[in-house]
Amino acid sequence: MKSGGLHGRGIGRIGPYPLYMESFESLIENNEVSDEIMDALFHLFSRKRPDVLAINNQTLGHILEGDTRARSSYFTKFAEAILGGSGGYLMCSPIQEERERLGTLLFSSLGGFLVESVLKVSDSHQAKRYLVTSDELQRRCSPPESYSANTVVAYLRKAKGQKKKITETLAELEVNPSKRTKLTSQCSKLCEDECKDLAGDVMFLATKFIPQKRVGEALLEEGNVHAAIVKTEDCRKTLKDVKAALEKNWDTFDLATHGLGPAVINGTFSLIDACLKEKMRALKKKDSTDE
Predict the structure, then answer these.
(1) pTM surpassing 0.70?
(2) Name one GO molecular function term (predicted).
(3) What does the alpha-carbon distance between residue 228 and residue 260 come to, in Å, rounded to a whole number?
């Protein structure tokens, strides 16, 4: 289970506790289990048992990490109080299996909605479905788009008659729609993960079908080779600076395009730089041949 570089992006909440991709990685992989995972598990285990006080995250951390001392008497008492019986959560399976099962439990408990993909692949008989988390919905209900409740219902591909039910669910998830939607675009139809997949496909096809070496060689000019190398290096540095400046100033653009715009722009800069690298190789080869 890899985050694809989206460590810092919230993917949902368990009660009041936000979770991130790195939260799940800490649980599934052989790392120290993160505090937010602990808090989310405590919330799940105890919310239907108000008479039981959740154990602290340090103790549960020892349990999930396989600490034999923590799994002894205290673990037994906790299991008897909360986790026992047919509805129990922990079943004394191997630690790695337990990590994976708890990760599935947490992920399935995230507040959100499943929606069908707008972009359907022609050879696929079944539309792909994406999880729209409460955090994503809150981003859409905030500037620059500021979704209203009606826009949220339409975005979730729900009938207008379900507005009341969805509004109640949004309130439970602490998502606050605006009174009036301020901005929509074609990007607004796509889920954040769908935008990520689309950007990935665009850049995959660009890398596959744009001949970088041929483009680089087409950029060769007559004249002093050493001067051309310096010029190309300066061009690469300038483009790197432009990219860095854009990244510092495109937060609103990122929100408006749900990650699609920055991903495509980053990929485009990478493609241009790859072509310039091919030009550098051709120049150096030409220089060695001339010598």
Answers:
(1) no
(2) RNA polymerase II transcription regulatory region sequence-specific DNA binding
(3) 35
